[in-house]
Amino acid sequence: MKVALINHGCAKNLVDSELMLGTLDKYGYKITLNEDEADVVVINTCSFIHDAEKESVDSILQMVDAGKKVIVAGCLPQKHKDDLQKAIPEICGMIGATNPADIVRVLKNIASDNNNIIQKEPEYVYPEDVERQQITVGASSYIKIGDGCNYECGYCVIPKLRGKYVSRPIENIVKEAKNLVKKGVSEIILIAQDTSSYGIDLYGHQALPSLLEELNKIEDLNWIRIMYTYPTTMTDELIDAIANLDKVVKYIDIPLQHSHPRVLKAMKRPVMDYEKLVKKFRQRIPGVTVRTSLIVGYPTETEEEFEHLYNFVKNVKFDRMGVFEYSREKGTYSDGLSPQIHHKTKKSRREKLMKLQQQISAENNQKYLNKVLNCIVEGYTDNGTVILRSEHDAPEIDGLVYAKTQRPVVPGDIEPVEITNSDEYDLYGIIKE
What we know:
Oligomer: single chain
Number of strands: 19
Number of domains: 3
Strand order of the largest sheet: 2-1-3-4-5-6
Shape: globular
């Protein structure tokens, strides 16, 4: 039996997919990257917003139409198990979002009628005895340090799908990081639903600073990046760890979602002076890059409250920023709020914010002109230009550095690049001899 896997969704889902492949490999299943030659196709789905659900469903239907035995995993069956089975009865099995190792149990029972393993009270279980089979191998690799979430943000279904926060032990994470470095990985990216709460459930206190200290000791590891932090758990100890540990890149990813106190309260988010918080990061961590993501068109958001957000962005001048239109999801607190905002209003608010951020980003990038940045080699363009990424940019969501060189360079290596030009999001330069 040959098994293929299709992954949808975020980097956290990608790690789950790699754990499923590792489990299959451990139990002797043949894995193929080509679904055309597979007998069974596992589709790891996303259910964060409606568009992600549609993409996942389209993928399921495509594989069913191709005559494949399809197993559906992840957030979609966790959220819509009964509806999914009724709508697409050809599905051969389902596993939920919290135990990737369940894939083997479902495969063994592929001929049975009731082949669904969905926890009613989800609690994430990381299969520590499994070695991930990486789908993408490059200079960077994600490590999931925990899963689940203890917050109840008004727009988010994740806690219902993945349960309470569960941290992995420090020694297991360090072991995984060392194995990845042996395979040639230069940058480790720490992910969870909320990385800054890491360790509270396991050790009784925030343990991310301690984890960073241990990871910082790994030889041949160049960069450690932290994604998805939370405002109230950005402690002084964590800020100091980011500032003082040489391998931890000076980069803070902190989704703030909004600035107006009333909207934040309606979102069930912390009501804080975020301008003051970002100023603190910049004072305590010289040269830090601050990335955030924001939501526009949240139910009840007024034009004046959007203007508050616009002026907040104008004043703070985030180094990196993403803006999302609010997506209405059943089962969330915000689904019941009124008035809901018209889709045209949401779109225009997003466009207005992104246009402002484009100007800010273009101005920010000019500060790198004539400076030398250490950059990680990602690959090459067709004409031989080297594609790199600075420590100020996370993979896939931030900008790139394009550079000319007179000597061969190897993906994964860190190279000094003199920046000679810039645009709204990317930098251009020459690799130093």
